[in-house]
Amino acid sequence: MLILFFTKTENSVPKNTLYYRALSYLAGLEYKKGNYAKSNYQYAQVFDKCPKLRIVAAYSFHPQEQSDWNQSLAMAKNNDEKIALWAVQGYYNDEVRAIQNIYALNPKSEHLEYLLTRLINIQENKIDKSFKEQNALKNKQGIKDSINQDSIKVVMAIAKSKNTSKPYLWNVGAGYLETLNGNFAQADKNFDTAESKMPKTALAINQLRLLRFINNLSKINKITPSAEKTVLSDLNWLYFELPKENLENFRYENATNWSKKYLAALFKTQKNNVMSELFLKGSDFYDNEKDIVNMKAFLSKQNKTAFENIAEKIYDLDLDKINKYQAVQATFANKIPDAVSFMEQSGDLQYVVLYGNPFNGKIKDCHDCEHAERQKTKYTLIEFLSTVKLMQDKVASQEDVFDNALLLGNAFYNISHFGNARVFYEGSIIGYGSSPYEFKDTFKNKITDCSVAKSYYQKALQAATNDEQRAKCSYLISKCERNEFYNKKYYSSNNWWNIEDDGIYFLAWNGFKNLKNNYSNTKYYKDVIAECGYFNTYVNQ
Q1: 249 SS3 class
Q2: Per-residue confidence (pLDDT) for residue 493, from 0 to 100
């Protein structure tokens, strides 16, 4: 009934959006009935005549076999209908062939421009943009090898013909493809031709400038002062001026990211790790002490070149963040005088306030609970480290060894993943996260290691003068033993999800045994039974 009604009324209604929506419904019915050739023929008409429905028509157009496609072509009553079919077919399959056929039928067809962008996008998607080898020359050769040479020939031929509706677009497209192909001189010629013919709109001018920049940067195989000058102005424009302009429909972000990777790869090849890091942050740069020293020397340098100033501006780390990172590293290594020195050079970062009291040692680990508690004294990072240094000095001079060793154990425990002071180690270099798995292995191992805390609890145990003190030390030691158990069983594994559940969630750690066997008469023992389910289970087994 629907098909019959449409056939009777189609010549008496205006060919507006409503008409083409009805035609798309009709095409859907034909597809459901298995009439694929007719369905695709009708969807092509919708695609051609109704821009609002082009996405729907393109997604619905699906020749099942080559015979369906041939039948659809045979249904076309004129060149416009053939072009419409080729335009949709080119979206799915062999855009080069579609361009050739449409160009032969009508060189000024608007669908040619859409298929040109489609062709270029497909070529771009074949490119490996990862720079896995960190070698610009290899990456450039890989790009050239991935480009379809037939695509370049077709686009170049059409660009030379100058008989499309927008010849400058074909010269721009040809120039970009030649850049990817490594033919930089030819790319320059195409861009020059495009510039002489293109409209002087902000979008067109900036697009051409961006492609010229990509071509010019691609020419560079080694960073030298003269090579830097060729792209200096465009780098300033791309990194700092463009983001402020907010040009509509102008996408430059991919070019920005590519340029940073390319420059980083060039500097990496030249053994300039600092400049390579500035353009593209690496995951392991700050694992190397020599690189850290060199980076700090660079950031402290007063007479930077214009190119170096650009690199520094786009880098999201500064001396303060690096010094804070070094302070954290020194703290985990229990080199507190060094940690204090680095932290004092971290600018305002040293005044970050810890959310909980880092010298408290609780039965249960609950950093949110401790953050919510009222604190009589709030510690900044530098105050925390200075206090730790003071306590260490007292332990070294045998002054109040129990109290100071206990507080030091709590301090080192709380700056671990299990404590209330994770903010101490979190930052731009180490990272942020509520799970150890959110950190790379070198940091994951440090933030889950409680060996320094355990050593201070053991010192406190040796200096204890009564059972209440000994009970507390025994339990706090068992917390470190528990975390070590978790580290080995879970956190040290790179494939946590495949760990079999053996039903063992805690062990009879030495701290548990000592507390149960020797200090069951203490108040602290009762407090632990009330708060620690593991210990309560152990006692009642």
Answers
A1: coil
A2: 60
451 three-state secondary structure:
helix
Domain ranges across the chain:
2-93, 129-281, 322-540
The pLDDT of residue 137 is 81
Residue 225 has pLDDT above 90, yes or no: yes
- Give the residue among 281, 297, 300 at the shortest CA–CA distance from 289: 297
Query: Is-contact 275 145, C-beta < 8 A?
Result: no
**For the chain, what is the largest distance between any 2 Cα atoms, rounded to a whole number of angstroms?**
104
DSSP string across 316-362? S--HHHHHHHHHHHHHHTT-HHHHHHHHHTSGGGGGPBPSS-TT---
Interatomic CA distance for residues 394 and 48, integer angstroms: 85
Helix/strand/coil for 427: strand
In this structure, the number of other CB atoms found within 10 A of the CB of residue 92 comes to 14
Q: What is the pLDDT of residues 369-427, one digit of tens each?
A: 989 988 889 999 999 999 999 999 999 999 999 999 999 999 999 999 999 999 999 99
No. of H helices and E strands in the chain? Answer: 30, 0
Please give the model's pTM, rounded to 2 decimal places.
0.87
Whole-angstrom Cα distance, residue 423 to residue 413? 13
Structure tokens at 496: 């946590």
